[in-house]
Amino acid sequence: MTSAPMSASIMVHHGPNHTCVRSSTLMSSNILSIIDSSEASRYPSRTYLILFRIDYAAKEDYLHRFLGILRAKEKLKSIKLSEDRVNSMVLPREKQTVLDWVDGNEKRLSDFHQLIWNYAEPAWREYRSAKAYVELLRKEGFNVVEGTGDMPTAFMATYGSGKPVIASYAEYDAVPGNSQKPLPYKAPRDGLHPWAAGHTDPHSALGVSALAGVLAAKEAMVEHGLKGTLKFFGEPAEKVCGSKPVHAAKGYFDDFDASICYHPSGYNTCNWETHSGAYWSVVFTFECVEPEKWFKPVHPGRIGGHAGGR
User: Fold this and answer.
1) Residue 183 and residue 186: Cα distance in Å, rounded?
2) For a tag on the chain, would you pick the N or C end, based on fewer CB atoms within 10 A?
3) What are the two backbone dihedrals, phi and then psi, of residue 109, each rounded to the nearest 5 degrees?
4) CA distance 99 to 223
5) CATH architecture of 99-278
């Protein structure tokens, strides 16, 4: 008995001295489609994105069939896949459920992000943002405690029971002086003071993306009978090192088996959270004649540390 077909992809990068095969899951109805990205003449290598429909019983046959076509196209004799590699190219059903849920709720999540982005509330004043998260999580079946750690705009939402305990969090504080329309140039929003708060990193996307992951995980738990506990925290005032030290000091994080943090970036990756140091909640007040020289950019999009230039 075979399962319903699922969508998957392989990316094959062929360089002068090597061939690298990578895979991911994409939603595509293509039975066989090879996208050749070698038109960029400045690159001597070729990259192919192969999209296909696959079921578990036929996965090995499909993958080797596609690679056979690629070998014929490029006369490559060296592309070989081990059985472990073939198996790793097909996502488990639980992960496929997560991805399907995210795809199916894309507009809903986008609309919720826009809501938080428009609220743009500064540290310790995120009343509407926190309320929006709390109401949504309760509708999703989470048990929500508001005002955790004696912080009015913090919360803790829990779903499930037992081990493992997996946690994540939303940040939703905006930064004063960053009021901005959704435009590629500086333009404070209408009806607000130019120095009103606005989302920078943006925390609006940080929180909603983490929320999406937790809700999708809950869907997989329900669909596949998975055991465990999800904990989702509302963490206000991150820009001034606000709520996380309080939650930690009061024991809210003590029973975690893992905590998954999300932050918007220019690329997708994951890594151990070992590059962050201690969290000190200190406010320095000073004046500078040339404030534009307070920090030195490391590269476009990153300004010499998490708090650089704020």
Assistant:
1) 7
2) N
3) -65, -40
4) 13
5) 3-Layer(aba) Sandwich (3.40)
123-176, pLDDT tens digit by residue? 999 999 999 999 999 999 999 999 999 999 999 999 999 999 999 999 999 999
Residue carrying the six token digits 């998975």: 226
Question: Does the structure show a pLDDT above 90 at 62?
Answer: no
Residue given tokens 């929003």 in the structure block:
189
Q: Which helix (H) or strand (E) holds 208?
A: helix 203-224
Question: Tell me, what amino acid is at 142?
Answer: F
> How far apart are alpha carbons 279 and 85 in whole angstroms?
41
Residue 46 near residue 38 (C-beta atoms within 8 A): yes
For residues 12 and 19, the answer to whether their CB atoms sit within 8 Å is yes
Note whether 6 and 103 are within 8 A (CB).
Answer: no
Question: Which has the closest alpha carbon to 129: 41, 275, 235, 55?
Answer: 235
